Fold this protein.
Amino acid sequence: MTTPADFKLDRRDGKAVLAPIGDWTAQGLGRTAQRLAVAVRDVSPKAVDLSGLGSFDTAGAYELARVAKVRPDVPGLDVRPDVVRLIELVGEAKAPERAAPPQRGLYPFLVRVGRFVETFGHDIVGTFAFYGRLLVTIGHLAADPRRIRIAPTVSLMERAGLDALPIVATTNFFVGATIAFLGANLLRQFGATVFAVDLIGVGVLREFAVLITAVILAGRSASSFAAELGAMKMNQEIDAMQVMGVDPFEALVLPRFAAMLFMMPLLVFVAMMAGIIGGMLVIWAVLDLSPAFFFDRLLVNVGVTHFWTGIVKAPVLAIVIAAIGCRQGFEVGGDVEQLGRRVTNAVVQALFAIIVLDALFALAFMELNV
């Protein structure tokens, strides 16, 4: 049965001594804290007598620390180690966090730069480790093809590929039309409007189709992969799979890689056709060049070299997009804030990687004179 909390405040040897009595718990406190606040308004206890104290919990420790300003080093507390520990815990919990003063100057800037470089280095190492584990998983599946998961791969091909066809085709159609408008207006000044066909063919086939498609998939599929795997990580589904003996890379990552690897070239091909058709319609309407002339000049002057130059980028970009999305999903912690941050990182890193890889491809093709 709970004994109501009470206290005595006496003077012993010239010092104010606080003597808690009864059960200083959440049930026994009642209005004792208010009376204690009035009693210690003009005097601060210098010692504590725990001989009459019964049960004690964090509620009582909080009131002693808050109202009577009892600290763990006050004389008399050492007879009850549990009381000392609870007052320490409550004191740490209620201690206000001091806001760090704003730092200015060269040193804080260098600290931020150093932290960025360290984080960037960890990301690079983590990315290579991710690719290494993926290669090991591919090796295991190559040794035993029966373990390949066909059903989830086909489902992901539909979600990441076929469902993206409308937005990819529509976006690239208008990109091709925009290039045609710009080319027609600029080349008309020099009397060379016929070269607008070459501009559309080279621009769409070589760069814009694959680049726009990759950007769309970075915002669509990379974020989706990160969110799906991150939610599974938060719900401990991935841990449960490992306990059951299922390899998460084999069950979750590899189907997403395969889906992106198979569908990206198809999407890029559709994007090329949509961009060419958009440019052809604009050339037909603005410059009155017939579709037959447009395609004939496209085949003769542009050829298939630029087509293959664009297509060859698709598998590389697909691997990078899938890797970034899956890796960020596996890095999610235990809260929603982490999930949102990782999804954002997946999109940003995928876009950055796409631009950098496209620039590297351009340099390589320039050196190869392709």
Remarks:
- The chain has a mean pLDDT of 86.
- The radius of gyration is 35 Å.
- The beta strands are 6-12, 15-24, 47-48, 53-56.
